[in-house]
C-alpha cells in the first residue's frame, strides 16, 4: 500500500509533535527536516488542527503542539484524514481470471496493512523510533548474542 505524500507528511508531523509533547514546533523546522515545502506542510498541519490532533499557536515562539492522546491515536486515525483506503480501484486486467486472482491477494495484503495501521498507536511508534534511533543502531540484544554463540559452538 502506497500512501500519498500528504499522508506521509501527516504521519511524520504527528510523530515529531508527539515526541516533543508540550513543546512548540515550527512548520519550518519540520519542513527542513523532511525536505518538503512549508506551503504543502502547512496545508497538512491545518487538517491535523481541524481534527484536534495538534494545536497551533501564533506569534513569536508560536508553532504547533501535540494535543491528542498518544496511547489512543492510531496510525489509521491519521491516515484516514487524508485518504480513503477502504477499497481498491479498478485496475487494468481486473476482469480477467488472472486479474481476479491477483485482486484477491492484493486485497488480503491491504487488509493486513489496515489492521496493522489500526493496531499501531503513536505511543507504540515513538517507542519503535527510540529503539531504532541512531543511538541504538547497531546494538544487539544480549539474547541474540547468546543464540549466535550457541550456534557457533555446536
Strand order, sheet with most strands: 1-2
Strand count, sense and barrel status of the largest sheet are:
2 strands, antiparallel
**Uncertain stretches:** 138-154
How does the overall form come out from the CA principal axes? elongated
Quick one: CATH class? Mainly Alpha
Oligomer: single chain
Short structural description:
It contains 7 helices and 2 strands, in the order αααββαααα.
Topology summary:
Layout: H1 5-19, H2 27-34, H3 38-50, E1 54-57, E2 63-66, H4 75-82, H5 97-119, H6 122-131, H7 142-153
Antiparallel strand pairs: 1-2
Helix pairs in contact: 1-3, 1-4, 1-6, 2-3, 4-5
What keywords describe this structure?
mainly alpha, elongated, Arc Repressor Mutant, subunit A, 58% helix, 154 residues, two-stranded antiparallel sheet
What would your notes on this structure say?
The chain has 154 residues and is mainly alpha-helical. It has a single domain (5-138), classed as Orthogonal Bundle (Arc Repressor Mutant, subunit A), CATH 1.10.10.10. Helix content is 58%, strand content 5%. It has seven helices and two strands. A two-stranded antiparallel ribbon has the order 1-2. Strand 1 and strand 2 form a beta hairpin. The protein is elongated, with a radius of gyration of 20 Å.
